[in-house]
Amino acid sequence: MDFYFGLAQLIGVHTLLGLSAYIVLLTGQVSLAQAGFFAVGAYTAGMLTVLAGWHLAPALGVSAMSGAAVACAVGFPALRVKGLMLVIATLAFGEGVRLFFFNFDYQIAKGGIQVGPLGGEGFRQIRFFPENGWGTGEVMLFIWAFVVAAMALLWWFDRSRYGTVLRAVGEDELAAQSVGVNLTAVKVSAMTVGGAIAGVGGGLYAHYTTHIEHASFSILLATFAIAYPIVGGLRSVFGTLLAVIFVQGFLIEGLRFLGDWRNLLFGALIVLAMNLRPSGFLGRGRHA
Amino acid sequence: MLDFFQTLSDGVLFGATYALIGIGFTLVFGVMHKINMAYAAASVGGAYAGLLVLKVMAGAPAWLVFLGAFVAGGLLGWMVYVACFHFIPLSSPLATLMSTVGMLLLIDEVIVHVTAGMPQGYPAMFDDVMLRAGEFSMRGDLLLVFGVSVLAMVGLLLLLYRTRLGLATRAVSQQPVAAQLCGIRLVRVNALTFVVTGLLGGLAGALIGASVGTLSPLLTVPLTVKGLIVTVIGGLGSIPGAIVAGLLVGGFENVLQLYRGVTERDLYVMLLLFAFLVFRPGGIFTAKGGRD
Amino acid sequence: MKTLALAVSLALAAGVAHAQTIKIAGFGAKSGVVRSFGINSEAAMLAAADNINKSGGVKLADGSKAKIEVEFLDDRCDAAEGISVIRRIAGTNAVVAVGPTCSNVAEPLFGILQKKVGDAGDSGLQMPVFTDVAIKVGLAKISEWAFRNVPNEMTMYNSLFYWLHTRHPELKSVYGGVEEDFAHSRATWYVVMKPRAEASGFDVVGNTKWLLADTNFATQVREMKKANADIVAVSAHPFSTCGVLKEMQRQGVKPKLLVGLTSSSSLETLQGCAKQAEGIIIPTSFAPINKEAIFAAKTTAKFKGAADLHSMAAWENMFILKNVMESEGLSGKPGDLQSDRRKIRDGLAKLKTTNGLIGVTKRDAEGEADKPYVFVHAKKGEWKVLHNPL
Questions:
Q1: pLDDT over threshold 60, residue C81
Q2: Could you tell me which chain B residue has the CA closest to the CA of A280?
Q3: Less Cβ around it within 10 Å: N or C end of chain C?
Q4: What is the DSSP letter of A283?
Q5: Can you tell me the distance from the alpha carbon of B27 to that of B29, in angstroms, rounded to the nearest whole number?
Q6: Which helix (H) or strand (E) holds C259?
Q7: Chain B touching partners, 3 or more CB pairs below 8 A
Q8: How many CB atoms lie within 10 A of CB A258?
């Protein structure tokens, strides 16, 4: 049972990562920076619970804010860059965040030993959950509370004017501008919301693995972040959830019985999925 | 002062490898307006395939291995085209992006499975040649890489501007619909673009393997990132831009490594990219605009 | 006669019906650049299990014998996946887990285990983990359920530098090359090699740095050339080690001696750059220097794995576990799974020494090992024993 709870925890964390890319993708921006916001949230929450002794919930609130702040700062220059250049620019930003943490040391002495992030060595012993006796089921529920909240928020956006505006910008910027949509506000706000969600996800991830380092937030993670909404389809938030379950639950854990073939199938199935359903699982199918 | 020039020269020369891989990225972008994220992986894959020549004929000369990589690269390029670009409609850029990522992962895994992840020594040409002028020295094998990039550039420019295939390619990149109306077969042009860039990629992979001395799956992702950065700095679609940008990035990163150390080096490369995006978004040689 | 035959067949049937298995789970990296580690560890575990089973198996508390079953899972050298894997293993009837390969997986994984045995307020996982490969210094103390059978680099390099100093009194200076972005190689230079070299009377004149996936070492080797040290110590994994060695050849940098990182004393370095690595000296906890070691290597080869310090640790682990199981008296019944796991943990914690393939291994209170070692050097594409301090 523990295993399934643990898997559900991981799926929850990755869903948050995917959702953060989802909302940005709705506005037509392909952002590989989400892993960077995720990292900011992870280190923030970790430092608050380990160095300052905070409870995880308020620490996650600060993670959300720091993720949002960094995302907002990225959102403005991102306006100047279009299409595939944005992909590369956000990739470079994500790498920049990783490199920042690679060089980041902040240790204080607690109980006779040094704790805190230590550059290349990483940030170890983020043990809020086990130290406070949380069982795997309880952690799962905690994580999913945030996932459900994020999904509800985005689902509500989709039903409101804001969501329509987001998608309008994603479909055709020029047309949206000509009916009076403020592109800057829309794109930057989407990026900010995405950053907040990624920040929370990152904070939860840090406490899930108890040890984070710069290499945990690599380009691969950034690619996973946009893979989820692309493979899941942009029609609804459930597409992203479905894609996370497909990748983490099916491809990574479910195919274990295939032994060595599992890794080969991973890339092959993604290629196949994109060929068969280019707009994603819950997208519009082959006919636009 | 000599330190600075030596470091700059070392970096610029190594940048020739980035230039070579950047040419392929920028060509695919210029023609199909899509990023092929699997390009560097396919190039490294081609280089690995070149090693099969040594299995068949032990002690084969290096250039024969490079030839093997060249051919294998072309084949891989065609496979990437079929898997990622042929069936997916052009109106789904996200799907092609994701499928090339899937292809990158697949090629990486195949390499890991076949070699059990172990580094493979790679044959080299002129790797013991060092041109010296007193304290100053330059690697001979990197000069070869630079020479090949220039030749590749000349060859590709000739192809693009002096042949019918090149004309068709340029037509397709500017106005795909009008080109089809003129009787140009879109599928054939696109497939051939991938094959040509694949051939170059295989050669690039082999030369990079020779310059580094060993091939490892560790090479694929960093090369992809460098290739993309070089493409953007040089100007999307511009082949001379890719070469200049490659040398620039190579020199810049090495000089910054000298002064700021290896852990901060890549951060500065990212900042260089951002500087270009802010001040010169078209890159060094902005490609001539199309309709949009 | 008939009743006798019936009685015998019934007894046999009863014996067969009670044929028990004890499951040991192995896990490690079977993907990426470290794939060979996972393949070799798995082969060593399967080979050891096969050997144990052929000699009758493990004796349980009730006197019956059980066969050992090995299942190996791939964690892809990823922390989150490693955690998933150990939870999955904990959900099966495996009594102990052997692994992981990567230190960056070991650290988080040990972090989710219960820190102190019997602490009711700690909800960490209660599963004994006996590591064969992950070598970064100081990990087992993270949890009382974590144990390792990996070489103690502090002892080995101390001994190596002392021996080098005694044997080559004319060599005075040491220069280091460090792979900065990989926890193990970085820690080994700053925490182990540098201080141990100084303690042995060498003058450490400096060090240069690079990253794991770097491809251009011109600047670093130039710094090395300037330092002109007698001994160059390279704390890096095979890919960048080969890159540096090739650049050294290019620039004509020929130190009198080369010292390498423990985990680079494997086939990988020789595959990548045997010629340039000629003569590099590395301390290692495995070399085929006696009958047991050669036998272990041969048997593992039958299961398509190579024998090196990493995979042979997995082999040793299997036999250590067999002894612990027999001395603690496992029940092997499904209902006693958790108590069996606890018995194994307690048994491992009690051990003061274990039998290594090349000598006796000492164990400490933190769950770490102090393994016997030899110094090997690369000669003509093979690792040959240079000095056997045993």
A1: yes
A2: B95
A3: N
A4: S
A5: 5
A6: strand C257-259
A7: A, C
A8: 11
Chain B neighbors of A96, CB-CB under 8 A = 267, 270-271
Backbone angles phi, psi at B245, to 5 degrees: -65, -40
**In Å, what is the CA distance from C331 to each residue of A10, C25, C69?**
34, 18, 16
Produce one character per residue of C223-243: b if its CB has 16 or more CB atoms within 10 Å, e if not: bbbebebbbbbbbbbbbbbbb
DSSP state of C191: I
Mean pLDDT by 10 residues, chain A (288 residues): 88 95 92 94 93 91 95 87 85 91 86 80 83 86 95 93 90 88 91 95 93 89 92 89 91 83 86 87 60
| Dist. CA C95–CA C118, nearest whole Å | 18
Which of C27, C31, C83, C122 is the best residue to mutate to test the A interface, defined by the most A CB atoms within 10 Å of its own CB? C83
CB contact under 8 A, B109 and A266: yes
What does the radius of gyration of chain A's CA atoms come to, in whole angstroms? 19
Cβ within 8 Å, pair A7-C83: no
Q: Residue B78: count other Cβ atoms within 10 Å of its Cβ.
A: 18
- Give the pair of three-digit tokens for residue C18: 């009670």
Chain C environment of B18 (Cβ under 8 Å): none
CA-based nearest residue to B50, from B125, B137, B147: B125
Q: Does C238 touch chain B (CB under 8 A)?
A: yes
pTM for the predicted model, two decimal places: 0.89
Classify residue A267 by burial, with Cβ atoms within 10 Å: 0-12, 13-18, 19+: buried
Tokens of A50: 């380990």
| Nearest residue of chain A to residue B90 (CA atoms) | A278
Mutation for testing the B interface, residue in A274, A281, A284, A286 having most B CBs under 10 Å: A274
Q: For residue C302, what pLDDT band results from cuts at 50, 70 and 90?
A: very high
Residue C211 with chain B: CB contacts under 8 Å: 262-263
Q: Which of B2, B244, B197, B168 is nearest to B81 (CA)?
A: B197
Residue C166 touches partner B, C-beta closer than 8 Å: no
Does residue B7 sit at the C interface (CB-CB below 8 Å)?
yes
Per-residue pLDDT at A152: 95
CA-nearest residue of chain A to C143? Answer: A125
Kindly give the pairing relationship between strand C173-179 and strand C231-235.
parallel
CA distances B132 to B4, B15, C227, C250, Å, are 16, 20, 20, 12
Residue C214, chain A, CB below 8 Å: the answer is no
C185 alpha-carbon distance from chain centroid: 15
Cβ atoms C365, C141 nearer than 8 A: no
Q: ipTM of the predicted structure?
A: 0.87
Which backbone phi and psi does C376 adopt, to 5 degrees?
-115, 160
- CB–CB of C250 and B128 under 8 A? yes
Q: How far apart are CA B182 and CA C107, in angstroms?
A: 63
Using CB atoms, pick whichever of A211, A214, A256 lies closest to residue C107.
Answer: A211
Neighboring chain B residues of C242 at a CB cutoff of 8 Å: 119, 121, 213-214
Residue-wise pLDDT for C107-142, tens only, equals: 889 988 998 998 888 888 899 999 999 988 888 999
Of B118, B212, B216, the CB nearest to C267: B118
Give CA separation, C205 vs A203, C208, C228, C233, in Å.
Answer: 42, 11, 9, 11
Cβ contact C355:C319 at 8 Å: yes
Q: How far apart are CA C157 and CA A46, in angstroms?
A: 35
For testing the chain B interface, which of A85, A87, A100, A266 should be mutated: the one with the most B CBs within 10 Å? Answer: A85
pLDDT digits (tens, 9 = 90+) for B198-220: 999 999 999 999 888 889 998 99
